[in-house]
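W.,

You were right to be curious about this one. When I first looked at the sequence I had no strong expectations either way, so I just let the prediction run and decided to look at it fresh. Below is the sequence, 593 residues in total, followed by the output.
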Amino acid sequence: MTLVRDGIPAAPGIVIAPARVLRWEVPRVPHGVTVAPGDVEAEIARFLDACEWAKERIRELQARTVERMGEVEAQIFEPQVLMLEDADLIQGTIGYIRESHLSAERAFEWRVLEWESAMSHTSHPMVLDRLNDLADVQTRVLRRLLDLPDPDLTARSDQKVVLVARELTPSLTVQLDPRQVVGIATDLGTRTSHSSILARSMDIPCVVSLGDFSEHVREGDELVLDGRSGRVIVLPTEEDKETYRERDFQIREWEQELVLLAHLEPVTRDGLRVELRSNIDLPGEAVSAKAHGADGIGLYRTEFLVVGRGTAPGEEEQYRAYRQVADAFPGQPVVIRTFDLGGDKFPAFLHMQPEENPFLGWRAIRVCLDEPAIFRTQLRALLRTMPHGDVRIMIPLVNEVAEVLATRKLIESCIEELAAEGIPMPRKYVLGAMVETPAAALSSPELARYVDFFSIGTNDLTQYTLAVDRGNSRLARLYNPFHPAVVRLLAMTADAGRAAGIEVTVCGELAGNPLGAFMLIGMQVSSLSVGPSALAEIKKVIRSVSHADAALAVAEALKAETPDQVMRILSGHLGQVLDLGKLTGSWSLSEPA
């Protein structure tokens, strides 16, 4: 009987192929095994040997990944290497062996369970990704200790298959052969997990977070997998298969059309220009953003420089990373966000204490202002980059004017310092604030007097406005950026920025959602910033609509009482000029009832 499941789309593409079910889980550890006092040191040596072996194996996979995909993709294995060098994990395990006389397998399992417990206080995607890396490390070390073989990933025949598993780890994903494994479907996982990133790099369509899907699929069952909408169908009918073959054909035609748009101007049908920039996480992504037609960088996240490190990055290292992006966009804006630490990002050198509510705690600009040595180093590197392009500084999670003033004071102090050292400085600098909380949105008329631009972070703004953890799958139906309260805060901030004569950008996921982009055009935001892969589609939206009609839709949406009403109004207007069924995201499969 046909079974239909909807998960999270993690890598685009539509495939029809039989299932290959992979059972790859953390091995069970025998209970009650202890070591004699005289064998403790030998057991510790056995554990350390397993860790060293696992580290070497990961380095081998990393080297192969560099050859197959590049340096950036290979960096995803760094957190696993750091885990195997983490004194807390290693010495904690040794402590259990030495003091409780546990076997190496049991002691390591206990220590990992304690780590999982400490991290499991939130279901935020980045924390889940870290747990996935920990499971990969745990599995590798335990299989070595238990003398178990690696899973057989080699082809059993020439037949192409969709791999079905509870969850895939990065080290397994990188070993897949895209000529045979043409799709991936997993029970768990996130779109941002390292396995999903690898699947996208390998052009393997992928759907994750399908619940207990793998328990309902048998080896050889035929599947339809749509990595664009997140839908998987087990034992599809002939009609299902024909529908998805036609959808695949239409999307391929659409994608070819989008490629041609890359270098056309982002202007609405009635002449309003909407700057279209890109969000990036790594310097190397600037090249892809440029190739996809970005007008600059609207959000350059800098946390890659600090997360997972034992020491803070130096000024020269940061300068090179920022300069690389500025050089890719000569004369175009490059907005660099200062460190957004705390919450789900745990740089070891900060020695952050556990907090009851980390996303409401010591994070972002609060950390930077409390750690001036770290902040000044970053600001100096940013200021040194400014003569090489239109580099702008953006500070995250601003709530008060005082935070902006304190940042300006530090910047001006750094400028004096650098000038005294004979380093060329720009005559003026551009400083913006991310609007991510209801407090910032409600204070936007006041904040606008002290900053040069706003950038609205719609992910956090939605989360904080609705008091919904966006990573909590149980609450997923409540996390909706089209909630009337969020829509009104967005409109309020856009109005405040426009009244003050400053630029208003939106850099959250809403900007990359065609329906969201249409709404933001109607609010007359100055620019949208989206991931490189979404640039062409959002440009298509911009060039297909008129600002006047988008503004009319927004005026109606601002009177709506529910998220569904907002979406229905926007879909009704956008659907008159675009085929919504071709647009990205599962929402496009059907308009809200």
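Here's what jumped out at me. The first strand starts at residue 3 and ends at 6. And, maybe more interesting for your project: The chain has a mean pLDDT of 87.

Coffee later to discuss?

I.
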